Amino acid sequence: MLIVDLRQLNSRQIEPLLADEAQHWRDELRWDYRSSLELIKKFVDAKSLAGCAALENNQAVGYAFYVIEEHKGLLGGLYVSPRYPQLEVAQKLLGLTLETLRAIPRIERIEAQLVPFGCPFDQALSEQGFRLYPRQFMLLEFGQPPENSEAAKARAEAPGTPGLSLERWDDRCFAPCARLIQLAYANHMDGEINDQYRSESGAMKFLKNIIILPGCGQFQAHASFVLRAPHSHELLGVVLTSAVAPGIGHTTQICVMPGYQGHGLGRRLIDATIAALRKRNFSALSLTVTSANQRAVHLYEDIGFQKIKTFTAGVWQPTGRDCVISGSGRAAGLLTPP
Questions:
Q1: In angstroms, rounded to a whole number, what is the distance separating the alpha carbons of residues 209 and 333?
Q2: Is the separation of the CB atoms in 60 and 9 below 8 Å?
C-alpha cells in the first residue's frame, strides 16, 4: 500500500472510494453527501486538495484532507474503505496529514470532527495528542403527528418567558444571531470544540457557511426560527435547519441566550422546526450534540430523538516545544464540506 499526496491523483482514481463513502452516509445517517463529494473530485482534478491518499493497485482505499483557516487547520475528512484495515490506514493518513499541518507557521490549533464508518478514530486522534469530545448523531422519525397537540400549544408560550415572539429566519438576523452564538457558547464546551463560536466574527463565518454555502445541505428558511423579546432587536434563541436529503432535515444550530436557558425555549424552537418540516412532507430530522451536554441530550431524547451513531470531535494545540520547532512549511487552502 502506497501513501501519496492527493495532488498526484485524478478523480477517476478516487471516485470509487467516494461512492463507497457516499453509500455509508446515506445508509447510516440518511444524508445525501454526493454534492460535497463532487466538490472533492473537482478539487482533486484541479490539483488543489491538500492531504494524502492510500493507494492499492493504483486505486484509492483511503484519504484525508485539510483546510487552512487563518490561525487553525481543519481536518475536513478522513475515510478508509471497510474492506481494508481501517485503523492502521487511518493512523498513517492522519499522521502524515498532521505532520504537514504542524509544520505550517502560525498554526495555533487543529480541529477535527470526523464521522467514522466501520471503526472509530478515537485512538488515532488520541495518539496524536488531541483532546477528545464524544458526540452523538441523533435522528427523529416523524411518523404520524400526535392526535392531541395540546402539549405543543402549551409550549407556544414557554413558562417564565411570556410574550416572546417566534419568527421565521430573515437575513437581517445574521448580525444579532452571531452575537447570540458568541454569548451562548462563551463558557460552553462546544466553544472548546469550535473556536468560531467564541467571537462574533467567527460566528458570522459559521452562519454564512451553514446558510449560504452547501456544505451542510440546503438551508430551509421556512423551518428556521428566532425568538426575540417584544420591541427588541436582540435574539434570545435560534434554530437553523437544512435539508440533507429528500425529506430529511438537519438542525445545523440551536442555542438560547444565557439566563433564558432551562425555560423551555429550546423545546419550543424544535417544536416549531418539526411542525414546519411536517408541512413540507419531511419524514425525519437529525442533529448532533456533545455527549457531555446532558441537558441537551435529555431534551432531545424526551422529544423522541434516538442516537444512531457516535463520533469524536478533537482539538490539538501545540505545546511550548512544538511552537519552537514548527518553523517551516507552506499552507494550502481549499473549500471543504463540513
A1: 16
A2: yes
Question: Residue 226 in contact with residue 235, Cβ under 8 Å?
Answer: yes
Cell matching residue 210: 451553514
Q: What are phi and psi of 226, to 5 degrees?
A: -125, 155
Write out pLDDT tens, residues 191-227.
999 999 999 999 999 999 999 987 789 999 999 999 9
Give the residue from 45, 80, 52, 85 showing the smallest Cα distance to 66: 52
User: Cell for 100?
Assistant: 504537514
Q: Rounded to an integer, what distance in angstroms lies between the CA atom of residue 2 and that of residue 53? A: 8
Global model pTM greater than 0.85:
yes
pLDDT tens string 40-59: 999 999 999 999 999 998 88
CB 140 within 8 A of CB 284: yes
- Take residue 324 and report the three cell numbers written for it: 519552537
* Amino acid at the residue 170: D
Decide: 95 and 128 in contact? Cβ < 8 Å: yes
